Amino acid sequence: MSAVFIIDPRGKRDLGFLDWEPSRGMLMQVLEFLAGEVEDPALAADLREFVAGGYAYISLSSYTAEQGAEIMKTIREKLPAAAAEWFPDHEGARRNIAELVELVEEAEAAPSA
Length: 113
Known about the structure:
By secondary structure, this protein is mainly alpha-helical. It has 4 helices and 3 strands, in the order ββααβαα. It has a 3-stranded mixed β-sheet with strand order 2-1-3, with helices on one face. α1 (24-37) packs antiparallel against α2.
């Protein structure tokens, strides 16, 4: 079963439609990782609640601009190394994570609204 992660942080414009469509399991693994890495305790709790609920759709616009920025920074800076550990022999899974990182980098580079 698939999931959708919309990369639409508040405060950015001209993003088009940036969406990552991993398996639900991969999305849950990424969100659980983010929950353990972000510094904002409220954000961490919200991400854990999302994982516990087993939801399949998440959007950065649901979070404050600061929380969205923290999620994106964590994805960009920490997720690639984690994916290399999780999937040492699975190039496809690592490429899937790399796609998310690229979407985040595109969103971060977009002009502010």
